[in-house]
Write a structure and sequence with these properties.
CATH class of the largest domain: Alpha Beta
Strand content: 25-35%
Number of strands: 14
Number of domains: 2
Radius of gyration: 21 Å
Strand order of the largest sheet: 1-5-4-3-2
Structural class: alpha+beta
Helix content: 10-25%
Order of helices and strands: EHEEEEEEEEEHHHHEEEE
CATH topology of the largest domain: paralog of FGE (formylglycine-generating enzyme)
């Protein structure tokens, strides 16, 4: 393939309106945005590149973020474009099997877990064990508590916030249509994205301190477990007849393997743990 200087390549292609969108030094690829296409240029040296592929610009543009406010506290919701994906893991634990196709409509999900500041703004109280900073994730909240919080939030905002379904949660954790197939939410290296038992010092940490995933979502691996709206099933072949509710994501008290995007756990709607919180959906 012919090698050119980047600027010369741009001129030869007649792409005067191009702007640099992303530069990935670790893989030595420069991606140049032009309308609805991205020209990916492989770096040979500081001055030499060659074109390797055309990809849709939408794959690289950040997901849409909408900011909401309640009682003076703002929080961000990220739009997750709908699509199909393979939920579960045939190589994982029994409750993760069988891997199966799910179709997810477009929805919004919290950029971070619900913080103590947001919970306090809505409920007027803070049930968490680990206090000290406003942007710590709220914890020690039952599934029932979470739905009480959401009902009041909806009264105050006029919106229809809710807990995500399990399928929505996993789709978002995997990165939706932007997924790179990582083991954890945003990386194959757990320390990049998660607070877990070996790096957390047995306490929660402020949200959004680790690397986000492909959609710009933080802490979907580790930090605190997150309730979903769904009743639990022992595996994906069985009906969701249990009164227990599913929660996802692992936590700061658990080993790294529980931070995998396919991992799932359950408990009674009334249970409260200091490593169990929530993330909003809309």
């Amino acid at each position: 393939m012919k090698t050119n200087k980047l600027l010369k390549s741009i001129m030869l292609c007649g792409l005067c309106a191009m702007a640099l969108l992303a530069y990935a030094e670790q893989v030595k690829v420069v991606k140049v945005y032009n309308g609805d296409k991205v020209i990916a240029m492989h770096k040979i040296s500081d001055f030499e590149y060659f074109q390797v592929e055309d990809v849709d610009a939408a794959e690289l543009l950040p997901a849409k973020v909408t900011t909401y406010e309640v009682n003076g506290v703002s929080f961000d919701m990220v739009e997750v474009e709908g699509g199909n994906y393979l939920m579960g893991d045939d190589n994982g634990h029994s409750q993760e099997k069988p891997a199966h196709k799910e179709t997810i409509p477009t929805f919004q999900i919290g950029k971070t877990e619900v913080t103590q500041e947001l919970w306090q703004a809505v409920m007027g109280t803070n049930p968490s064990k680990f206090k000290g900073e406003a942007n710590l994730p709220v914890e020690q909240v039952s599934w029932t508590d979470c739905n009480t919080f959401i009902a009041k939030l909806n009264e105050l905002t006029g919106k229809n916030f809710r807990l995500p379904t399990e399928a929505e949660w996993e789709y978002a954790a995997r990165g939706g249509k932007k997924s790179q197939g990582y083991t954890y939410s945003g990386s194959n290296t757990v320390d990049d994205v998660a607070w877990y038992d070996e790096n957390s010092s047995s306490t929660t940490h402020p949200v959004a301190q680790k690397q986000p995933n492909e959609l710009g979502l933080y802490d979907m691996s580790g930090s605190v477990w997150e309730w979903t709206s769904d009743n639990y099933s022992d595996n994906y072949s069985s009906e969701r007849t249990s009164s227990d509710r599913a929660y996802r994501g692992g936590s700061f008290l658990n080993k790294f393997s529980l931070s995998r995007v396919a991992e799932r756990y359950k408990n009674d709607e009334s249970i409260k743990y200091d490593n169990l919180g929530l993330r909003l959906a809309l």
